[in-house]
Amino acid sequence: MQVVEIVIRNNTYKISCESGKGNHLLRLANSFDKLVSSVSQKTGGKGSDALNFLLAALILEDKILELTKRLDEVNQEREKYRNEKRIEYTEVLDKVELISNLIHQFSDGIYYFLSFSLIISVIVFVHEYGHYVVAKACKVKVESFSIGFGPEIFGFNDKSGTRWKLSVVPLGGYVKMLGDTNAASVPADQQELTEEEKLYSFHTKPRHKKAAVVFAGPFANMVFAVIAFTIFFSIAGYYRTPPVIENVIEGSAAKQAGLLPGDTITQINEHKIKYFEDISRVIMSNPKTRMEIEYSRNNEKHRTSLTPLIIKDKDVFGNTIERETIGIISVNTLKQSSFLGAVSLSVSETYHTMCLTIKALFHIIVGKRSINEIGGPIKIAKYSGQSAKKGFIMVLYFMAIISANLAAINLLPIPLLDGGHLFHYIIEAVIRRDLSLKCKKYAAIFGALVLFLLMATGMSNDIRDLF
User: Fold this and answer.
1) CB 353 within 8 A of CB 407
2) How many Cβ atoms sit within 10 Å of the Cβ of residue 168?
3) Are 281 and 268 in contact (CB under 8 A)?
4) 128 a catalytic residue
């Protein structure tokens, strides 16, 4: 503390204050003395010093209130300015975030598109090359071999006159043979061909050769799927887990049905269970179905029934999916990597993938599955990109699944598909004559309509999933 002497109206006052604040107090006293002198002059020197002090204090109070009000206004204006700037800053951040998200989505879209184009091109090439090899073996002239549809990007002619080309739209491909009017292998009028051309026309060949050429495409996809699965299982390994329950999840369908740890599942409905992996396969291929389960406990056979519950889960790419489960956990087993075992498992996996594809389509038709499960090129592109990000081994696995799916779908008896052509040949073999050109063209129109509806449904579902 320190003592400061201040002078107001020639009177000296001693005031105690904190150390370091004496100069501030002197300046304040000097200002107050001037204010008192001003008040005294305005009153003509009349009035006591106490009155002058009071008037000065009142004036000072008014100025302080005015200054406080002004400060409040300044603070309000400053706060308003800050809020406006904060809003502007937030809007800028939102725009930057929106642009960043758009750039990220665009780059992801490009990546997915390129991954999709590459994966689909390989699978389509395998499919069409199957047609091509058998066609050449049956002495059919192949006019063009295209990966993709639409205008040609680039291509070349080989020694036999076949035009090999890459086209703009990477949604499939085709092999156009002599005698076809278009890429869908709709036959032209064979009477317009010369005698030499008829020798190499696809449509003048015996039915068994035409069937061989047609079936070669899906068969090539089956072989490719087996090879891809074999490489995948040989590198990544695989499990052959006995169907023994290690644990039963609380509140699950299995718990409610009375299944216990140590029970061995031997049969579900009419399906024999050899490995634990067979259980999920049976559940996936029979949605919304009550399961009759046969199991062994202490060497005694028992039966129970349950309905799988739907849960949310993640697939191998991290996407949220809904799947049915009965709520049991398998025993721990060592991962295997035998090549022969991988081959055997790959054949089984290809077969079951094809069966699951056909069953899924049938279940959608009869209403056991939602039509929203149909995916289009956007969904395939998304999974293509996600598999590519996980490395070559996951790309191989994804290609195996798509190749098996393509083989199964192409064998459906829908005109324009390979299965539709095979169905035509079966009908012709039964009636012992060729179907008329008019009938084949009407069938092609019907097939195109069905395929268009499937594609439109898949695209619609893809677009809805994006938003």
Assistant:
1) no
2) 11
3) no
4) yes
**Token pair listed for 155:** 């291509």
E strand or H helix at 321? strand 320-325
Helix (H, G, I), strand (E, B) or coil at 235: helix
Residue 349 has a CB neighbour count (10 Å cut-off) of 24
Residue 376 has, within 13 A of its CA and on its CB side, a CA count of 19
Q: Which residues contact 160 (CB under 8 A, 6 or more apart)?
A: 136, 141, 142
pLDDT tens by residue, 146-198: 998 888 898 999 988 899 999 988 878 889 888 777 666 666 666 677 777 78
DSSP state at residue 54: H
Rounded CA gap, 359 and 271, in Å?
Answer: 15
Q: How far apart are CA 124 and CA 131, in angstroms?
A: 11
Q: Residue 20: left if φ>0, alpha if ψ -120 to 50, beta else—which one? A: left
| Two tokens, residue 125 | 């090439």
**Residue 64, phi-psi category: left (phi > 0), alpha (psi -120 to 50), beta (remainder):** alpha
Q: pLDDT for 72-109, tens place per residue? A: 777 788 788 777 777 777 777 777 777 877 777 777 77
Give the Cα-Cα-Cα angle 443, 219, 166 (nearest 5 degrees): 75
The C-alpha torsion from 45 through 46 and 49 to 54, rounded to 10°, is -110
**pTM of the complete model:** 0.74
Segments in 158-206 forming alpha helices (H):
195-200
Q: Contact, 458 vs 376, CB < 8 A?
A: yes
- Report the chain's C-alpha Rg in angstroms: 42
List of E strands, 125-238: 142-157, 163-177
411: Cα separation from own chain's centroid:
27
- Would you call 192 exposed, middle or buried from its count of C-beta atoms within 10 A (0-12, 13-18, 19+)? exposed
Say if residues 316 and 391 touch (Cβ distance below 8 Å). Answer: no
Active-site option among 61, 73, 128, 292 = 128
Q: Which residue has the tokens 């295209």?
A: 146
Cβ 34 vs Cβ 59: under 8 Å? no
HSE (side-chain half, CA atoms, 13 Å) at 146: 22
Phi/psi of residue 395, each to 5°?
Answer: -60, -40
